[in-house]
Amino acid sequence: MIRFILVQNRQGKTRLSKWYVPYEDEEKIKLKGEVHRLVAPRDQKHQSNFVEFRNYKIVYRRYAGLFFCVCVDANDNELAYLEAIHFFVEVLDAFFGNVCELDLVFNFYKVYSILDEVFLAGEIEETSKNIVLTRLDHLDKLD
Amino acid sequence: MPYYRLKDLIKAIRACKTAADERAVIQKESATIRTSFKEENNDARHANVAKLLYIHMLGYPAHFGQIECLKLVASNRFADKRLGYLGIMLLLDENQEVLTLVTNSLKNDMNHSNMYIVGLALCTLGNISSPEMARDLCAEVEKLLGSTNTYIRKKAALCAMRIIRKVPDLQENFFSRAKSLLNDRNHGVLLTGTTFITELCHQNSEALETFRKAVPLLVRHMKSLVTAGYSPEHDVTGVTDPFLQVKILRLLRILGKGDSEASEAMNDILAQVATNTESAKNVGNSILYETVQTIMEIQSEPGLRVLAINILGKFLTNRDNNIRYVALTTLNKTVSIDANPVQRHRNIILDCLRDGDISIRRRALELAFALINESNVRVLTRELLAFLEVADNEFKQGMTTKICLAADRFAPNKRWHIDTVLRVLKLAGNYVREEILSNFIRLIVLTTDLNAYTVQKLYAALKTDISQESLTLAGVWVIGEYGDILLKGGSFEEEEIVREVTESDVVDLMESILAGPYANQVTRGFVLTALMKLTARFTNSVVIQRIQANLERFSTSIEVEIQQRAVEYNNLFKVESIRPAILERMPAPEVKDETNTNRPTDDVAVGNSETGTLLDLAGLSNSGKAVETKNTVDILEDIFGNVATAVPTTSSKKDDIMSLFDIPNNTTTTATSNKATTVLGAKPANPLDSYTAYDENGFKITLDPSKDASSPNVLNIMVTFHNVAVGSQIQNLLFQAAVHKTQKLQMQTPSSTNIAPGSTATQLIRVANPQKTNVRLKLRIVYQTSPDTKIDEITEFSGFPQEVW
């Protein structure tokens, strides 16, 4: 199960944070900092995309200047979550059309609703890009 | 000036040059938003909450917006509801009181005719539901699970999962609906349904039984996913819905675990997935990885297990670090179950020690240590020693400990054992734990026939390098102890040239250590003592005077410990009559103090090796401490009889001790010919009769229990060793025993360790049994019938009738 999802840029600015287990506000700030310090200096080529973190694992993937990190249980399938991150990014990319960091900043509320169509309650919810995009399209029309 | 639109606010914040500017902008904006909230400005609410959420994301306080979010949710406009729920999910969590106010809105929205509004409510419930909310809305979710709309069913399944995670009591409400989820034709519903059922089976054994019947259905789903041609909807680089495949495999794992029928039913599909899945891409590998884990956990056929291990073997050669990482992690899990198939990939694992990624190196190292056994200890230790030379410093201490423990456990002979530890000391002498060092010294002392070899080796090592602290300490101690043997020289096999060592050479070396840059108080202490001992080993009076001068020099040392030693040693020269006796060789060092108040003699050498070897076997260096604690309890018990209060406080330590005794059984099965013969023999009428605990190869051991006169809780057992028909003298007998952790054991020194044919020897053991439970003894018997035949057996005895204890 996913405990939290963080999207941060290289400077450690949070672009999205989703918590599926309750944490105190101070704890959230601490976690964001720790995850950033853990993930940002890692070598892209020679290191794996998994880091142990407390009793959990961070599965992360870097897209340009953005780190997409999910914190999952120790016995979860890391490779599948890596694929799930990519799926989420593909949806973002299709939705915004060649997504960049600024899209996420100015449309942060949309990013959350995209996330909510892909993950729910810390589990992956939908794996078809078309279905997600159609739903998002309908949602936007309702607004 | 307030910013009216979200976009303007974001732009303004981005335009800030410094953090202080940013704070100022946000404070100002927060204040405006707050005022606007107070004024109940309905038109501006949406924009204000949106801005507030952005502010919240930057890490600034935004909790004053919680109630506004509730108001948005109550609105009829979809856009308001959407933002309101988003705000609730961001600003609230299950631990906050305000959340109870949301329950009613959620209930209403779940019954809304617009599926997107229902979706929003489900999403909110799924992400932040508290236990109370879960109870209140359980019925709604149950109803929505049966919705005709896949979008709603899909979300409801995950909400149901969240609900039973929060309140496991609610499981039963979902049983009937859950079954139909597995028949769903929609991928999304199937995916979330499988996730939900996995959680259900995880929690509830009744559900587990029910869903075992669904194994054939799941297998069919798997099959259609694997064999289906290209399906654009769920395709990920040529694999059909890998996420669903992974979820189903995971559920199969739970269903197949511990159930042979279910395991049997999934064997074929697992084999099919394992062989047919494309392994060139991460997607395929994620499925293979899940398959392997399932195969390892269920009761699969041996052939399938080999296949699984081979997949991991192939993973290890993959160039992708992620794949190697998961392979090593999984192998680490499986190696404890069955190490043999993993052995075949030993070389690749060793290659991973040189990987660029430290977490891969760490895992490979763990795995390499787990793979060591009698047959490969030489090869693996050689590799590990080679790695020790280049290893990261943070690994070194762990490595030295583990290498030495492995050597302790599996050493083919003493010579190799000594060589190995010596090499460790040479390579990483600054990263060696104290226990390892003292184990090494004990090994040297106990291996009398290799003393000459060892002392020469250490001398030579110190001649070339005095920078490794542990090496220096061991070397100095051994040279002090066996200085005379070092001088005698003599060759030890092989072509190595034996150095001619003179007494002054030795003192030169000691002086160089004292003067060297690496000396510290501990080394100085060791050197002084060694020098002092050497005065009893050396004959050249000039050299002895030199030593005296050295000691003299330290009698004004500013380190109290050193000064005290120097002064005491100097004074020892004045009492020539006792000096040589004091400086005699040390007896074998004790790990376990026997602490018998009524021990007849101070015959140390025999009794003490027992615990030593047991510790070695168990491979737990720090457990020496635990053993000592146990003994102090024993003393107490000797003094006060049954000390019940001591029992709970030391229980955890005793667990350690028990685990010590448990380990040898697993680890040495192939090494020694131990037979776990449980003697549950017939119970004789007379309770205080003699019981036979062991009778093999003409060697018989009988036990004579009797109640201790002073304490009713203590059972004295006189162990008698009969050399009935061994055919030769029994030599170096070592008898060890262990009892259950609620009991405590004390062993006295045996009357003899050598038993001539036809004669007997005895040893008294005392078992403190405050809880009056069955006395079960685990026994280990080691003896030699000739210098090269060593017999090592483990047996159990629990044949005492109740009257005895």
From TrEMBL, chain A:
<dbReference type="InterPro" id="IPR011012">
    <property type="entry name" value="Longin-like_dom_sf"/>
</dbReference>
<dbReference type="GO" id="GO:0072583">
    <property type="term" value="P:clathrin-dependent endocytosis"/>
</dbReference>
<dbReference type="InterPro" id="IPR016635">
    <property type="entry name" value="AP_complex_ssu"/>
</dbReference>
<keyword id="KW-0254">Endocytosis</keyword>
<keyword id="KW-0813">Transport</keyword>
<keyword id="KW-0653">Protein transport</keyword>
<dbReference type="GO" id="GO:0035615">
    <property type="term" value="F:clathrin adaptor activity"/>
</dbReference>
<dbReference type="Pfam" id="PF01217">
    <property type="entry name" value="Clat_adaptor_s"/>
</dbReference>
<comment type="function">
    <text>Component of the adaptor complexes which link clathrin to receptors in coated vesicles. Clathrin-associated protein complexes are believed to interact with the cytoplasmic tails of membrane proteins, leading to their selection and concentration.</text>
</comment>
<protein>
    <recommendedName>
        <fullName>AP complex subunit sigma</fullName>
    </recommendedName>
</protein>
<comment type="subunit">
    <text>Adaptor protein complex 2 (AP-2) is a heterotetramer composed of two large adaptins (alpha-type subunit APL3 and beta-type subunit APL1), a medium chain (mu-type subunit APM4) and a small adaptin (sigma-type subunit APS2).</text>
</comment>
<feature type="domain" description="AP complex mu/sigma subunit">
    <location>
        <begin position="1"/>
        <end position="142"/>
    </location>
</feature>
<keyword id="KW-1003">Cell membrane</keyword>
<dbReference type="GO" id="GO:0006886">
    <property type="term" value="P:intracellular protein transport"/>
</dbReference>
<keyword id="KW-0168">Coated pit</keyword>
<comment type="similarity">
    <text>Belongs to the adaptor complexes small subunit family.</text>
</comment>
<dbReference type="InterPro" id="IPR027156">
    <property type="entry name" value="APS2"/>
</dbReference>
<keyword id="KW-0472">Membrane</keyword>
<dbReference type="GO" id="GO:0030122">
    <property type="term" value="C:AP-2 adaptor complex"/>
</dbReference>
<dbReference type="InterPro" id="IPR022775">
    <property type="entry name" value="AP_mu_sigma_su"/>
</dbReference>
From TrEMBL, chain B:
<dbReference type="InterPro" id="IPR011989">
    <property type="entry name" value="ARM-like"/>
</dbReference>
<comment type="similarity">
    <text>Belongs to the adaptor complexes large subunit family.</text>
</comment>
<keyword id="KW-0333">Golgi apparatus</keyword>
<keyword id="KW-0968">Cytoplasmic vesicle</keyword>
<keyword id="KW-0813">Transport</keyword>
<dbReference type="InterPro" id="IPR008152">
    <property type="entry name" value="Clathrin_a/b/g-adaptin_app_Ig"/>
</dbReference>
<dbReference type="Pfam" id="PF02883">
    <property type="entry name" value="Alpha_adaptinC2"/>
</dbReference>
<dbReference type="InterPro" id="IPR002553">
    <property type="entry name" value="Clathrin/coatomer_adapt-like_N"/>
</dbReference>
<dbReference type="Pfam" id="PF01602">
    <property type="entry name" value="Adaptin_N"/>
</dbReference>
<dbReference type="GO" id="GO:0006886">
    <property type="term" value="P:intracellular protein transport"/>
</dbReference>
<dbReference type="GO" id="GO:0016482">
    <property type="term" value="P:cytosolic transport"/>
</dbReference>
<dbReference type="InterPro" id="IPR017107">
    <property type="entry name" value="AP1_complex_gsu"/>
</dbReference>
<keyword id="KW-0653">Protein transport</keyword>
<dbReference type="InterPro" id="IPR050840">
    <property type="entry name" value="Adaptor_Complx_Large_Subunit"/>
</dbReference>
<dbReference type="GO" id="GO:0005829">
    <property type="term" value="C:cytosol"/>
</dbReference>
<dbReference type="InterPro" id="IPR008153">
    <property type="entry name" value="GAE_dom"/>
</dbReference>
<comment type="subunit">
    <text>Adaptor protein complex 1 (AP-1) is a heterotetramer composed of two large adaptins (gamma-type subunit APL4 and beta-type subunit APL2), a medium adaptin (mu-type subunit APM1) and a small adaptin (sigma-type subunit APS1). AP-1 interacts with clathrin.</text>
</comment>
<protein>
    <recommendedName>
        <fullName>AP-1 complex subunit gamma</fullName>
    </recommendedName>
</protein>
<feature type="domain" description="GAE">
    <location>
        <begin position="686"/>
        <end position="801"/>
    </location>
</feature>
<keyword id="KW-0472">Membrane</keyword>
<dbReference type="InterPro" id="IPR013041">
    <property type="entry name" value="Clathrin_app_Ig-like_sf"/>
</dbReference>
<dbReference type="GO" id="GO:0030121">
    <property type="term" value="C:AP-1 adaptor complex"/>
</dbReference>
